[in-house]
# Entry
Amino acid sequence: MADQDYGVLARTHRHALDFIAGLDARSVAATATADELRARLDRPLLDTGTSADTVIDDLVADTADGHTGSAGGRFFGWVIGGALPSALAADWLAATWDNNAGASASAPAACVVEEIAGAWLKDVLDLPRDASFALTTGCQLAHVTCLAAARNAVLRDAGWDVETDGLIGAPAIRVLANDQRHGSIERALRILGLGSKCIEPLATTVDGRLPAETLRAALDRVAGQPTIVLLDGGDLHVGGFDDYRALIPMAKAAGAWVHVDGAFGLWARASRDHRHLADGMDLADSWATDGHKWLNTPYDSGVAVVRDTRAHRASMAIATSYIAQDSGIRDPMDWTPEWSRRARGFAIYAALRELGRGGLADLIDRCCAHAKAIATGIGALPGAELLATPTLNQGLVRFPDRMASDEVAHAARTDAVIAAINATGECLFSAATWRGKRVMRISVVSWRTDARDVERTIAAVAGVLERMP
Ligand SMILES: *Cc1c(COP(=O)(O)O)cnc(C)c1O
# Structure
């Protein structure tokens, strides 16, 4: 291959900078329809190849209006962060170096960087420094990793070696979980062979908290059975936190493994103003979070941290003869459910260095302030109702039908207003059904969101509500 073939990289650099420069002006929602995208992209696959320049130019042109503006500052749907400049650049380099970061033998620098990124993460999140960790594709696989370790440990304590003997004939495992849990918890349990029916849901209060007496009663209902307790580290809808100092010791005294879903909420521990909310979360046994949410790394960035290093390793390690085992560098494949893998430590390392401790704290607290300003700003508009003022970075509003009193009508109007807001292209929100009410979720996790974005967003929603009285 000739070096000139890499001219496409300079072209791609220009395409990338053009996209980023255009973020403020483009529609936040994608505007292309599925049919339009298919008509442009579904070309006949030819026998002869196409030049790299043409492939990339066409890809950029064909998909241009098919991307949401989640890389910009006015994307508030779900919990989706942007990408810090150094993290994006490091991710480009990870693809360029193209090392397989499963093993140190094939990627020494990537694996050393991953060791350091793991240590930095435990440090900024203030989790046990001697805990083991894994960098996974996302929080979903971080749950699988943590809960595989949990499964190993609670069955080991019951005299059962699940890694050798499997689950058939094993003692049943109870899983006590918050009723507002994220769907990825259920899927992790399904993948691990525990099944969704093993979950005993625990009712939470309207502010997303699990009362201590609810957990106490659930633990007391059955004694002496292997048990895993799943706590939310930041409730999905309202960002509520539990009283971890009360709940975690109670569960552990009953012999349970405590896992925390801190996909975004764990980052409160790196803030100044919101740190107290996540107090005591470090008492748990395992934690799952995301780099691609609040740390603002590009996608493919989940983090699992496990206190019981032995259970973590027992559940994931593999013995092979053809990979050198004695490099003195941690082999990531012994800690994740993956073999070949992207060198995802680079982006985390870069993001943490670019921000520094202070910058990370500012990022978290700034997003929370913007979330509050957007929620209260929208909530104050005629035709809107504020349902949950953000205590972290998540808020809820809805747009009730003033002519009707039933939830069906309120839901229909709320959905119609959200669709109209998203159609302005100014900002993007997602809908959900929360405690029987259709709501618009407000979620701020991007480093790019600033006061001007907040103003533009409230103005866009005000404009829609004036048109739809
Ligand atoms: C996003 C999210 C997940 C899933 O994380 P992925 O990175 O998308 O796999 C799990 N739990 C909560 C609370 C989340 O917000």
